[in-house]
């Protein structure tokens, strides 16, 4: 049991581990049975495991590193792209995906391209809504 505040690896909630039952052998910890189950926590005969230590899921930082490497950009490029897209959305423009992470902003009244940036290929087509 611990009087030290912990952060749930699933939901981010701060909790105190008074009962000690939601810990994985890999060090993952959860505030509730529900959060543990959502991360695939399983008690086994000689320990426990979860989606992360079984290699079935990955931390967000690992996925981000994979995506920026696959796109051939660095974190700074991604930050600049995100800032530009937020600025264009605030100005009333539309940010669209057209098979790529391709920022083409249009005014809502006229179909005029204001800016364009392509980061790389993505298979999904949709509209960004913030």
Keywords:
alpha+beta, disordered C terminus, 3 helices, three-stranded antiparallel β-sheet, 7 strands, 130 residues, two-stranded antiparallel sheet, 26% helix
Describe this structure in words.
The chain contains 3 helices and 7 strands; from the N terminus they run E-E-H-E-E-H-H-E-E-E. The radius of gyration is 21 Å and the shape is elongated. It has 2 domains: 5-49, no CATH class; 74-121, no CATH class. Residues 110-130 have low confidence and may be disordered. It has helices at residues 33-38, 60-71, 75-90; strands spanning 5-7, 14-16, 42-44, 47-49, 94-95, 100-106, 113-121. The two termini are 42 Å apart.
């Amino acid at each position: 049991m611990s009087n030290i505040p912990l952060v749930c690896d699933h939901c981010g909630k701060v909790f105190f581990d008074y009962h000690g039952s939601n810990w994985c052998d890999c060090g993952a910890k959860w505030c509730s049975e529900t959060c543990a189950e959502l991360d695939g926590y399983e008690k086994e005969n000689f320990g426990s495991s979860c989606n992360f230590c079984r290699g079935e899921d990955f931390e967000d930082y690992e996925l981000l590193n994979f995506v920026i490497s696959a796109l051939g950009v660095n974190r700074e490029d991604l930050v600049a792209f995100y800032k530009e897209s937020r600025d264009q959305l605030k100005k009333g423009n539309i940010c669209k995906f057209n098979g790529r992470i391709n920022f083409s902003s249009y005014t809502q009244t006229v179909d005029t391209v204001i800016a364009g940036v392509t980061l790389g290929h993505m298979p999904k087509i949709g509209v960004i809504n913030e």
